[in-house]
Design goal:
It is built from nine helices and ten strands. Helices cover 39% and strands 20% of the residues. With 278 residues, the protein is of the alpha/beta class. The longest helix has 23 residues. Helix 4 packs antiparallel against helix 5. It has one domain.
Length: 278
Amino acid sequence: MFGETSVLQHYKTVNRSDCQSLRSIRAEIPDKDATQPADIRASILTRMDPGSVALKSPAYSKVLTPRPSQFLIRQLYKGMGVRDTEVERFLSETLLPMAGIAMGNDNRKGSLVSAAGKSACSSAEPFYTKALKQSRTGQYNGQPSINVYYDQDGQPLAFQKHFDTASALLLQGLDADGVLLPAGTIVGIGRGDFKKVNSVSPDNHHTLTALEIVNALPVMPNRLSPWAYSDGLDRAIYGASGESGEFDPTRADLVQSVSLDDFRKAAHQVMAMCGVAA
C-alpha cells in the first residue's frame, strides 16, 4: 500500500500536469499527439467548462474525480445527448490520454442512453468492494442483488451492484455509439435486449443473476472509478481528498486493495454459479 506522502505527491503531480495541459488547450497551442485543430479543441473545452471549474473544483468533487481531466470526462459523459463527432474526438484524442487512460482496439459494442439524473456518489466504491466480497463468498454483505452482463462470447462486460441505487462497473472498454468508455467506468444500465440465464440465492438474502446481452449493452456513463487504473498509486489518489478536503487513508487503502481483475474474476464466478459455462 502507498502511504500518504507518496499519494499526495502523485496527486499534486498529475493535477499540475492536467492544469498545464488545459491552459495550453485554452491558449490554442497545438498538440503533436492530437489531429484535431487547436481552435476546435479550445472551443470544445470552453463549451464544456466555461468557468474553468476543472482548474478549481471543490474538495467534494475531487473525491469523485481527483484530476481535472477526470472531472471533464464526467462532465462530457453527463452532457452526451445528440451525437457530436468532434466532442467524441476530443474525448479520445485529448481527455482520456490526459487522464492516463489508454483505450485498446478491442472495445465491445455499447449503446448510449441519456445519463440525465444518474449519479455515482463517493459511496459507490465502498459498496462495490462489499459486492465483490459478497459475490466471492456467497454471504450477504449489504447488496440485495448482483448482476453480471456478458456478451455472446461469454465475456463479462459489466458488474452491477444494487443498494439504494443500481450502478455497474464496466469490465471491458466499450464503444457506445462512438463514445469511448474505458474499463472501470461507472455506468447505469438502460433497458435492453437481455436473455436472463439464471438467478441463484446463495443465502436467501440476496440474488446473483447472469444476463446475456443480445445486441449492444445500453449504458448511461457517469464517471471513471479508481479501477479504471491498473497502477495502485493512480487508484490511491481517489483517497487524496476526502469530503472536507483532507487525506482519507481508509478510502485510499480501499481502492488500492483490489483491482479490476478482481471484479472480472468475481463476474466469472457469478456466471458459473448461475450455470453459464466458461
